[in-house]
UniProtKB/TrEMBL annotation:
The chain crosses the membrane at residues 71-91, 138-156, 162-180, 217-238. NCBIfam families: hlyIII. It is found in: Endomembrane system. Its main location: membrane. Belongs to the ADIPOR family. The gene is MMD2. It comes from the Eukaryota. It is a multi-pass membrane protein. This is Monocyte to macrophage differentiation factor 2. Keywords: Membrane, Transmembrane, Transmembrane helix.
Length: 249
């Protein structure tokens, strides 16, 4: 006869404990398992080199000052997102005695306020396209929103997770709605699609202790969203044969 039901239950629980720890109270930090730590590092480290290459392509394709500046800002943020996230998760994994001092470093979630669905993802479009009446204010408003979000996370990290999550989503979709007022909406579908992936990823962001490797899965959604946004920027703002008015500028 095969193993009894209680034996199977114990086996499944043992596997869960190996790949996933128990959930923690809302005001405490979840402690990943060794496997989850490794996955958290790998799922963003993999994208560091592609982000550098992608940023370099935008720089090469730039043919005026604003395009060059936008390429540098966006490329710095895109690469910094994956680099800082990888460093932070590596320290959390390998240097656990430094875990409490990690707040002295730029935290990954702070970078998401700048890169994910906020400042850097929208800056190239706001800098290089003709702006509508609402979008003209969004050039500086997205940076105010990103700064406020970063300050909030720095002082209240892990204390009000639901508030942090709601702000993350609002700050992601608000600039996309404003872009609807712009005369040229090419690429809006890709921007919205990237935003959907970011927001779907928050389901896993809130599932530590319920779904194994939940945080790493969230990382993958962030990477997919960033990739879609990069494609929209490359295709509609930098690719030479995609810009009808580029030759006339």
């Amino acid at each position: 006869q095969g193993p009894s039901l209680p034996t199977l239950t114990l086996l499944l629980r043992a596997l869960d404990f190996r790949f996933m720890n128990h959930r923690v109270p809302s005001n405490c930090r979840y402690q990943p398992t060794e496997y989850e730590h490794a996955a958290n590092c790998a799922t963003h480290a993999f994208w560091i080199i592609p982000s550098i290459l992608g940023s370099s392509i935008l720089h090469v394709l730039s043919d005026n000052q604003w395009e060059t500046i936008s390429a540098w800002i966006y490329g710095f943020g895109l690469t910094g997102l994956f680099l800082v996230s990888t460093i932070f998760h590596t320290i959390s994994w390998k240097k656990r005695h430094l875990r409490e001092h990690c707040f002295a470093l730029p935290q990954p979630r702070n970078c998401y306020y700048y890169q994910g669905l906020n400042g850097l993802s929208y800056s190239p479009r706001l800098n290089l396209r003709e702006l509508g009446p609402w979008a003209s204010h969004m050039r500086w408003l997205i940076w105010i929103m990103a700064t406020v979000g970063t300050v909030y996370v720095f002082f209240f990290h892990e204390r009000y997770k639901l508030v942090e999550l709601v702000c993350y989503i609002i700050m992601g979709f608000f600039p996309a709605v404003v872009i609807l007022s712009m005369p040229n909406t090419d690429g809006l579908l890709e921007l919205m699609a990237g935003g959907v992936f970011y927001c779907l990823g928050t389901v896993f962001f809130k599932s530590d202790g319920r779904i194994p490797f939940a945080h790493a899965i969230w990382h993958l959604f962030v990477a997919i969203g960033a990739g879609i946004h990069y494609y929209a920027i490359w295709r509609y703002l930098y690719r030479p044969d995609a810009l009808e008015g580029k030759a006339s500028r």
